[in-house]
Amino acid sequence: KLTVSDLDLQGKKVLMRVDFNVPLKDGVVTNDNRIVAALPTIKYVMENGGRAILFSHLGRIKSEDDKKVLTMKPVAQKLADLLGKPVTFVPATEGPELEEAINNLKDGEVLVFENTRFEDVKDGVEVKRESKNDPELGKYWASLGDVFVNDAFGTAHRSHASNAGIAANIAQTAAGFLMEKEIKFLGGAVENPAQPFVAILGGAKVSDKIGIIKNLLTKADKVIVGGGMAYTFDVANGKKIGNSLFEEDKLDLAKELIAEAGDKLVLPVDAVAADAFSNDAKTVVTDGDIPDGYMGLDIGPKSIELFKETLKGAKTVVWNGPMGVFEMPNFAKGTLEVGSYLATLEGATTIVGGGDSTAAAQQLGIADQLTHISTGGGASLEYLEGKILPGIAAISEK
Ligand code: 3PG
């Protein structure tokens, strides 16, 4: 694939799709990970004499009111703080103001234009020009620059005007360094992992993870399943689960997966169960049935040991989804222990994908000790399912 370092950037207007879809509170960016992750590409373009034209979506725009809250202005400000350099913010997604600002941009300078999804609503009507990849919009944005660098891995599962649309209308689309890194680690894990390869999957719902479980069962040596979704597998194994999360319509599927996977699939052997969904609930640790009136909210100590034993010696680990309700301190232990164990694995490539597990890794303070924390939520899930992501497919070959 073509990457930004293959391009001659001097004096070029460089269109750069980034994923600056970051959380905001009262108009302030509360987590700048995605901005920080895009800095290497932005700095590289600036240092090599390119004129960086940055754009991203932010949230979902369904009405004119949404536009008041979801402006890119505070994001551009955050970028300026991180770069320690001025960033021009243009409050438009098209038209003379934007075009003039681009024409006034000098080599090594950077501008950010308004939320690409503002194009989804025109005069109060939902037209979805960006989200439905209106061909005219992609063509227009492509006309504003000389080359296109796509560094928005987090948006790679969307086929929108600001990624696929531009790529279809410009001579060359190159991956940014973040995109390259995500493909290297997530793509490497699903295509060519160093073995043993162990996947740890968690999270509340089986239905969200079916694709990943199925795909990784074909690639990994072991697939550990914890978190809320494990209880549907417990029922499939004939256990009683009290009031724990259960997806009845996924029971047959769970049975099938258990039968197909054999000892490749590693399930919890005990649980920390609570009499209410609350940090202060009364708890019991059970290694058999969960009593009526109780719900499993974390894996128990024997599961923690079993999972660590399974992970021992792994050379590739993909972690997606927490082992319990880690937001509540009394049910965070499983996620914490398993997550910190990953950080001790020697010579292993440890990859975290998906919003929740990323939040857990950060909350646990182990993010720096893991090889790669993906900036993708939905994108990393779809990638781990083995799907072709339109944003990646649209990058030119070398
Ligand atoms: C994300 O946060 O997962 C991406 O930025 C995509 O956002 P979307 O789900 O609103 O398309």
UniProtKB/TrEMBL annotation:
PROSITE patterns: PGLYCERATE_KINASE. Coiled coil: none annotated. ATP binds at K209, G296, E327, G354, G355, D356, S357. It is an enzyme of class 2 (transferase). It catalyses: (2R)-3-phosphoglycerate + ATP = (2R)-3-phospho-glyceroyl phosphate + ADP. Keywords: ATP-binding, Cytoplasm, Glycolysis, Kinase, Nucleotide-binding, Transferase. GO terms for molecular function: kinase activity. Pathway: Carbohydrate degradation; glycolysis; pyruvate from D-glyceraldehyde 3-phosphate: step 2/5. The keyword Nucleotidyltransferase does not apply. It is found in: Cytoplasm. Substrate binds at D19, F20, N21, R34, H57, L58, G59, R60, R117, R158. The keyword Nucleotide-binding applies. Its EC number is 2.7.2.3. Belongs to the phosphoglycerate kinase family. Monomer. This is Phosphoglycerate kinase. It comes from Periweissella beninensis.
